[in-house]
Each structure stands twice: as C-alpha cells, then as structure tokens.
Design a protein that fits this description.
The complex is a heterodimer of chains A (391) and B (455). Chain A has 391 residues and is α/β, with parallel strands linked by helices. Chain A has ten helices and 17 strands. The chains are: A alpha/beta (391), B alpha+beta (455). Chain A: Belongs to the DNA polymerase delta/II small subunit family.
Chain lengths: 391, 455
C-alpha cells in the first residue's frame, strides 16, 4: 500500500486500507471513572453513546486526518473500513465528496436442497431467569421440533427440520450475579451460582432436542464461556446428558457452517448490539446489512467490544458471501432477502430473544425464505388481550 | 390461627398420558379426546375442563407468521378465527378444575419428562437415526478430532477468513451434512407410517443394535477413565456394554455373581493367563487370582459357590497368618471386593472371625476398654464439593488402667460377639451401684471412677 502524503491528493480516491476513528464524547472511559480528582460518578450505561460533537477521523498506519463533508458521522463506527473520495483542504481537514464500502463479497456456489428443508434459529432462551414465563414456550418449541405436538401434518413438517441452531444467551442475564464479590465468603460458601441450575435445565432441554434433531449451540453474552470474541464453545462437561449424543454440536460464536449445502454465518448478537450503541442506526436488520456491505462482521472490536488481539490477520473480514447471515438476541424478528450486484443472494435474519418474544425463526433452505414461529400459553391476563390482536 | 389450604391442580396432559401408558403421542391425544367426548355424552354436567393446542399461520406485517398456542376451551374458537390457516388442533390436557394459567401444564410435562429423560423421544412421531448416544470411549476420540482441527487453526492464520476461527465447525458441518440425507429419507418414511407400534419397535431395536455393536468395537481400556468423567448416562451405557467388552476389573465382580457366564470368562482367563504372567508389576496379584480361577475351573459348576467361599476363606486365613509380603502386594481394594461378591452371610462371619481376634488378645492383656469420645471428623462432601468437619462420638479404646465407666453404646452384634459379653456384667454391676452420681461425673475425672471400680 503506497503511502501518500495528504498534500498530494486532489480529487483522488484515497486508498481503501484505512480505518476510521470516531471521537466520542460519551464513550465510557475507564480513566474518567477511576479519577477521584474530578469527583465524577461512574457513567451509567446508556443505550447509545453518540453525541453531536463526535468527529470522524480517517487513519492508517502512518497518519490520520479529520473528515468533513458528505459523510454521516453518526452512521459510522470505529473500525469501519471504507474508501473516501475528495481532497484535502488548507486547514488540514479532508473534504469528502463521496465514500463507498467494500460491498458484498463474491458468493459461494449454490448447493441447496431441492425439497423443503428447514433450519430453526432460536436465540436468547434465557434459562435461569427466575421467572417461568418463557418456560412453557420453550417446552412447546421442543415439543414441536421433536414431533410431539401437532397433528400428523404438522409433525411431518417438523420432520423436515434438519437442524436447530441456538444462537446464544441460553442463560439469562440474571445468572450473572456476582454475589461472591460483594458478600463475605462465609455467607456465600454454600450458595451455588445461579448458572448451575440453569445449565442443568439447559442440559435437559438439549437432551430432548438431541434425541430428535442435530443441534448447534452457540454461546452468547451471558453464557459460561470466555467474554472476548471469538467465544469458544461451551464445554461438554457442563452438559453430560446431552453431550452423549453425536447430534449435539457445541460451536463458537461467530459461527459459520454449511447446512445441507447452504452456507450459514452468524453471531449471537454482540457485534450488532455494539454497533447499535455506537451509531445512530436503530434497526438491527439495517446494521446487519451494513456489516455485510462493510465487509466486516464486527468493526467495533476490539475498540468497544472485547476481542482476541489478532495481529497477523483478521478472521472477521468477510471474504465470501454467505447464503444466510443472522444475528441472535435481536429485539424483534426481521428478515430480508438481499440481492447483490454480482448475483449474490443472502437471507438476512435477526433472530429475536426467545425469553422476551417467544418467537423463533424457521428458514426454508430451498428458497431462502424465513418465517417466524411463536409459542404461547395462556394466563390470567389473556382474557382481555386476545381480542385486540388483529390480522 | 388460620388454616392454609393447598390446592393441587392435577392435569392430565397428552405427554403425561403417553409416557404413563407407553403409547405414541398421537394415540394419547386421541385417547384424551375420546375420553372427553364419552364423559360429556354420559353426563352433560361433567366438570371437565379441556385445553387445546392450536397451530396455524396468519399474515402479519406482510409476512406469514406461524403460531403455536395452548388455549383454554373457551378461547378455542377465538384463536381459530384469528388464524388464517389452521395446521393442527388437538387436545393438550384434561383436568377437573379450571386453570387460571398454563403453569400447571408446564409442571406436569416437566415432571414426566424429567423422570423419562433417558427415552424422551420414544413415543414421539419423529425418530432421528443420527441420535445415537455415543459410547463413552467414542467421546475422547471425537474430542481429539476437534482439538486437532482447532490446532490447525493457528497454522492457517494466514488464510484470514472466518472458517479459521471456527476451526472445527466446517469439519463438523461436513460430517453432519452427509447424514441429513439419510435422516430425511428416514423422516419421510416415518411421517408416512404414522407411528405404528411395530414400526416403532423395529426402529428402537435397530437403534440399539448399532449402538451396542459400535460400543463393542471400541477399545475397552478407555471405559474406566470415562467412568469418572461422565455422569450416570455414561455409567448406564458402560454397564450395557460390559457384557461384550468384559473389561478386567468388572470381570472380578461379574464372575462370582453370574455363574452362567462362568464358562465364558474362564475361557477368557485361560487365554489371558499367559499374557498376565509376563507382566512383572502385578504378577503376584494376578497369580493369586489366576490360581483361584484354575481351581475354580476344575470344580463342578454346581458346587462352585461354596467351593469359591472355601477357597477364599483359606486364602484369607493364610493372609492373616503370614501377614508379610502377600498383604503388601495385594492392594486392599480387590480383596474386599472378592469377599463381598459371593453371598453376604459368609462375609460378616469372616469378619467376625477376624476382628475379635485382635481385640480379644489386646483386651485380655491390657484392659483396653471402648470409650465414646467426641472427635472431629473431616471428610469431603461430594455434593457440595467442600471439606466438612463434624464432631461425632466415636468408640475408642483407651488404656486408662482404672477406668471402666463407658456409655454403653451397643456395638454391632456381628463384629464383637465376645467382647460385649465380657463388658456387660461389669457395667451392670456398676450401674446398680452408682446410678445418677456416676452419670454426672462421666466425662470429668476419669481417674476418680477407677477408685470405685476396684471394689
């Protein structure tokens, strides 16, 4: 990559291998937090860390320059790789006239099935939350997949589910309590971590699923594995009942696999939610598409999202276009079939958190279509609520 | 004071019925439906509340959404009218009381599934050919395969693409992508057959057969390691597989208790004996065992059990007398196992012979008495995973010359047939004489009591 001094650039395309930095006013700073001189209170977690005074800085190995012009500061996050077209001004800032991303990488050849085959995407089971609201829904989901619920027509449809993919947050955030830090040791000696019971419940659920269908289990933000991306698979000693079956696959996050000839790529959602926090984009599907176009699964790592310090190469760069690109633990279900310029076809799916929405996604591998499937029981309050839901 | 009433709602769900009666789920649903119909025809005022499962699809926000819901009977029509197409409607549960919410249904299902976890898909309509529990020996191989795949990842770091991160994912995907083809054929066949019992039985049989044959082909050496690693599931499987595999440790236990299998194992022993003798480390131990087996082989089969015991008794008594190198070589664990394995009554008798011998000897000489002492015992509590210190009263012999006062804790009758007989006359005398006064001074001045004893 030739290094050029900024002065020599006039209406030329700057090289693509540059990184973008955003100076954020609100970005949580550890130094501020521990600074006692300022008597500052620790910053409460905000839903979004954007501020009008944020700036964009273009940076490569040698130099950095502020960007102005036809570019949306709030739309971009730190770590985005893009090309800018413009020229340098006298005050040392770069005036942008246009910019573009890497766009969709070339797609893999299509080897999908010719008959209906389904993959069930679920995320955010949230076991161990202490509230039993989603438990019946989870049981209904397991029963549908294992062919216990439904009449014969429904059961034969369920028989076509060739894989179940659990995309993270199998455990609830409530299992993350760290009483052991706050309380004295003698008080916490006999109490076991909340995640122990939750993992036992998970083991039973996975056992029921594994006796019937291959299951891929991805860890998520609240699951007992490492924090930094890429998260390693859950250890099979935690799931003694289910790991006896060869149909259980404990996989990493992010996860890429070929299921029946269809290439799946996705995460448990930490990458998308981090971009959500640091940009003005609100729609998870929009962010998902944006990461695909930017050619990188998680640009904010390692800046604001924990990530292993890869230094030779970055495994999160998208070199080929998957057929199904998903993210877990989204606030709601969304899906879109994206057509690329070179004939790529990608199904984008945001899988909602099951503990909140009782909804999972059924992807039809034959035609890359996706439909949500919701489960519900009944409660005392349903008497009034039912009538209001319309078509 | 107010009384508290506990209302337990008992609901019969289709799943509970299916597991309890051992029928296919669809049959259970049909049975529930027939029952409800019949009861309502017989007695129109029947207090039966039914919940239904409704599954179908409706169009929401431009795309089709599937809905699966459990509804009360009074809401059934409303739910059906909301759905554009109805895929299935069937009885979910039947109960006497009106349910406020679906929690009791969940509890019923959860309990019945929990007690049937080992065959949770036995009565379901979908069977998966790939869902065969791995024999414990297979698992470390699978783990090694994935570890190797993972170790390939750093060396491939130059490739710089997503598959590197998930080193084993593509390989796993490759393995399973071949399987679903077979599964699909199976599913298509299964769905068509609609759960006939005969079909189901052949399926479970065919499932078990490959499971056993796969297990028997695995190296038996791994099984003992995996015993510790996995829980009950592995242990159960191991017991199933022990018959074809015959690992060495299990042979010892299995042999005396299964006389029918005797010829098999003895023939195996004959084959293995020459191999055993060449091993120097455990040679003495094995010689003992092989000697025993040779002797057994020559016996008649009917008289095997008592002769075993005789031989064993002889061996033990020999051990007692020359307690030198033989004891040192043989680790304590196999011998108690072999003692225990034959019928229990001879064993306590054996022990009875053993234990009073040393105590009698010592009691006669030095007036050793058994006393209850408060001692703290430390042991590791497996459930909690921690060390627990407990204070317990324990019988202990003390050498105080005069002391005779002990709280008469009744010792186990088998163990010390002789000693209590000796002690009791003394204690009775003592108790008659002193009564409560003795009790108050029990744990204090031990030596003072000796003053009274000398009478």
């Amino acid at each position: 990559m030739p290094q050029r001094r900024w002065l020599h650039l006039h209406n030329t395309w700057q090289d693509v291998q540059v990184r973008k930095l955003c100076e954020l006013q609100l970005q949580p700073s550890i130094l501020q937090e521990i600074s006692e001189e300022h008597n500052l209170e620790p910053q409460p977690p905000l839903p979004k860390y954007i501020h009008p005074s944020d700036e964009l800085i273009l940076e490569d190995e040698l130099q950095r320059i502020k960007l102005e012009g036809a570019i949306e500061v709030q739309q971009l996050v730190t770590g985005t790789i893009l090309a800018v077209y413009g020229c340098e001004q006298d005050d040392g800032k770069f005036l942008v006239e246009d910019h573009c991303f890497a766009n969709l990488p070339p797609s893999l050849p299509w080897k999908g099935p010719s008959a209906d085959r389904f993959v069930l995407l679920v995320s955010g089971l949230g076991l161990g939350s202490g509230s039993g609201e989603s438990l019946l829904g989870t049981q209904l989901l397991v029963d549908v997949v294992t062919g216990q619920l439904g009449a014969e027509g429904g059961q034969s449809c369920a028989a076509n589910i060739s894989r179940v993919l659990l995309a993270g947050n199998l455990l609830s955030q409530n299992t993350q309590s760290r009483d052991t830090i706050n309380k004295a040791k003698y008080l916490t000696k006999k109490t076991q971590a909340a995640s122990v019971e939750a993992v036992k419940m998970l083991d039973e659920i996975l056992l029921q699923l594994c006796t019937s269908v291959p299951v891929d289990v991805m860890p998520g933000e609240f699951d007992p594995t490492n924090y930094t991306l890429p998260q390693q698979p859950l250890h099979r000693c935690m799931l003694p009942l289910a790991s006896a079956y060869a149909t259980l696959h404990l996989v990493t996050n992010p996860y890429q696999a070929d299921i029946d000839g269809v290439r799946f790529l996705g995460t448990s959602g930490q990458n998308i939610s981090d971009i959500f926090k640091y940009s003005s984009m609100d729609d998870y599907l929009e962010i998902l598409e944006w990461t695909l176009r930017a050619g990188h699964i998680s640009p904010t790592a390692p800046d604001t999202l924990g990530c292993y310090p890869f230094y030779k190469s970055d495994p999160f760069i998208l070199t080929t276009c998957p057929h199904v690109y998903f993210c877990g633990n989204a606030p709601r279900f969304q899906s879109k079939l994206l057509q690329g310029d070179e004939g790529q076809r990608v199904l984008l799916v945001t899988v909602p958190a099951f503990s909140a929405t009782q909804t999972a996604c059924l992807v039809n591998l034959r035609d890359l279509s996706c439909q949500p499937i919701s489960f519900s029981g009944f409660g005392a309050e349903d008497d009034d609520g039912d009538m209001e839901v319309g078509h | 004071m107010c009384a508290a009433y506990v209302v337990v709602i008992i609901s019969v769900t289709y799943k509970w019925l299916s597991y309890t009666l051992g029928v296919h789920v669809n049959q259970a649903k049909q049975m529930l439906y027939d029952y409800v119909e019949r009861k309502r025809k017989e007695n129109s005022g029947a207090q039966l509340h039914v919940t239904y499962l409704v599954a179908g699809s409706l169009v929401q926000n431009g795309h089709t959404c599937h809905k699966v819901a459990v509804v009360r009977e009074d809401k059934l029509e409303a739910m059906k009218s909301k759905l554009a197409t109805i895929a299935s409607v069937h009885v979910y549960s039947v109960q006497k009381a009106l349910l406020k919410d679906s929690a009791p249904l969940y509890n019923t299902d959860y309990d019945i599934v929990k007690t049937n976890l080992h065959n949770c898909s036995k009565f379901s309509a979908i069977q998966c050919a790939a869902a065969v529990p791995r024999a414990p020996a297979e698992v470390p191989q699978a783990q090694r395969a994935s570890a190797q795949a993972g170790s390939r990842a750093p060396s491939d770091a130059g490739a710089g693409s997503a598959p590197v991160v998930n080193g084993h994912a593509p390989s796993a995907a490759k393995q399973t992508s071949q399987q679903p083809k077979g599964i699909m054929e199976m599913f298509a066949a299964k769905a068509a057959s609609k759960g006939h019992d005969a079909n189901k039985e052949t399926k479970t049989e065919s499932k078990e057969a490959p499971g056993v044959s796969a297990a028997s082909s695995k190296p038996p050496a791994k099984s003992s390691i995996m015993n510790n690693f996995f829980g009950k599931a592995a242990m159960n499987k191991l017991k199933v597989n022990s018959v074809p595999e015959q690992p060495k440790e299990e042979k010892e236990v299995v042999k005396p208790s299964v006389p029918v299998a005797e010829p098999e194992s003895s023939s195996n022993v004959v084959v293995e004996k020459p191999g055993k003798k060449t091993e120097s480390v455990k040679s003495q131990q094995k010689d003992k065992k092989s000697k025993m087996k040779r002797v057994d082989k020559s016996d008649n089969e009917e008289e095997r059990e008592p002769e075993n015991l005789k031989k064993k008794r002889k061996r033990i008594k020999q051990l007692e007398s020359d307690s030198s190198d033989e004891e040192a070589d043989i680790p304590p664990s196999p011998t108690p196992e072999e003692e225990k394995a034959p019928s229990p009554p001879p064993v306590p008798a054996l022990k009875a012979e053993l234990e009073p011998v040393p105590t009698e000897v010592s009691a006669g000489g030095r007036k050793r008495k058994r006393k209850r002492v408060l001692k703290s015992k430390m042991f590791i509590d497996e459930e909690e995973g921690c060390m627990v210190t407990e204070k317990v009263y324990e019988s202990e012999s003390c050498t105080d010359s005069g002391d005779d006062f002990t709280e008469s804790k009744p010792p186990p009758p088998q163990k010390q047939p002789v000693l209590p007989a000796k002690k009791e006359p003394k204690e009775e005398k003592k108790n008659v004489k002193k009564g409560p006064a003795a009790g108050s001074r029990a744990n204090k001045q031990v030596s003072i009591m000796g003053f009274f004893q000398k009478k």
